[in-house]
């Protein structure tokens, strides 16, 4: 009796036969490529073949853009802003979510806002204090924004965000010790973001007073995360 290891291979797996990835249906190719970041797609994947390039240019591929800088691309840091702008152009105004790591500056934020008026989520990680003015200019053009994740922001800037984005439902704020993110930030949230459902504060210096203001000013809050907010003493009624 022949062993199981000697059974014939399926036709597609016979020795010497290979699948032609260029002949995959466009929707399947798109599903595969969407698992890559924007940088990998624009610097590598779209150069594989003509069929992949066609898929990569489809605006539906660019409803969500994630710009993270892989270590192998760190030497190209100064060129990656152009890659980000290219991705935004490819969305043809259909961009709904964008996450940017380290590249954010006022010029780029304005470029996004001017071409993505339907944007729902904006994530700015490690952008630094310099982007505060850029955030002000950008959010005033993004009235449909529902979620903002940002590192470093001043209280007065946060007020502009709340006033300009009435649909804001999620705010994730990481102070990282750059500013004394204290009760001024908490009061800005309480005064201008009554529709918040989810709030995450990291390394924020707010006190019990600031926390009380948020709880009173954001009656629809469902999820509150406080990480390394060391000036809060959650006891008694506030603990409940």
UniProtKB/TrEMBL annotation:
CDD domains: F-box_AtSKIP19-like. PANTHER family: F-BOX DOMAIN CONTAINING PROTEIN, EXPRESSED, F-BOX_LRR-REPEAT PROTEIN 21-RELATED. Residues 18-65 form the F-box domain. This is F-box domain. It comes from the Eukaryota. InterPro entries: F-box_dom, LRR_FXL15/At3g58940/PEG3-like.
């Amino acid at each position: 009796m022949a062993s199981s290891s000697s059974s014939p291979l399926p036709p597609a797996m016979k020795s010497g036969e290979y699948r032609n990835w260029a002949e995959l249906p466009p929707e399947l190719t798109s599903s595969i490529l969407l698992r890559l970041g924007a940088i990998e797609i624009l610097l590598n994947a779209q150069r594989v073949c003509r069929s992949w390039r066609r898929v990569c240019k489809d605006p539906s591929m660019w409803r969500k853009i994630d710009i993270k800088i892989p270590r192998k691309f760190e030497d190209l840091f100064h060129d990656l802003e152009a890659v980000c702008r290219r991705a935004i152009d490819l969305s043809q105004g259909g961009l709904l979510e964008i996450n940017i790591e380290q590249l954010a500056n006022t010029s780029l934020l304005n470029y996004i806002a001017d071409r993505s008026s339907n944007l729902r989520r904006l994530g700015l990680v490690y952008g630094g204090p310099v982007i505060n003015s850029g955030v002000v200019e950008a959010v005033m053009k993004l009235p449909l924004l529902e979620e903002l994740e940002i590192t470093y922001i001043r209280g007065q800037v946060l007020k502009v965000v709340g006033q300009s984005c009435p649909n804001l439902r999620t705010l994730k704020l990481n102070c990282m010790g750059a500013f004394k993110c204290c009760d001024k930030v908490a009061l800005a949230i309480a005064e201008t973001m009554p529709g918040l459902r989810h709030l995450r504060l990291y390394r924020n210096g707010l006190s019990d007073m600031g926390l009380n203001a948020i709880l009173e000013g954001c009656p629809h809050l469902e999820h509150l995360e406080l990480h390394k907010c060391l000036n809060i003493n959650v006891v008694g009624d506030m603990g409940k």
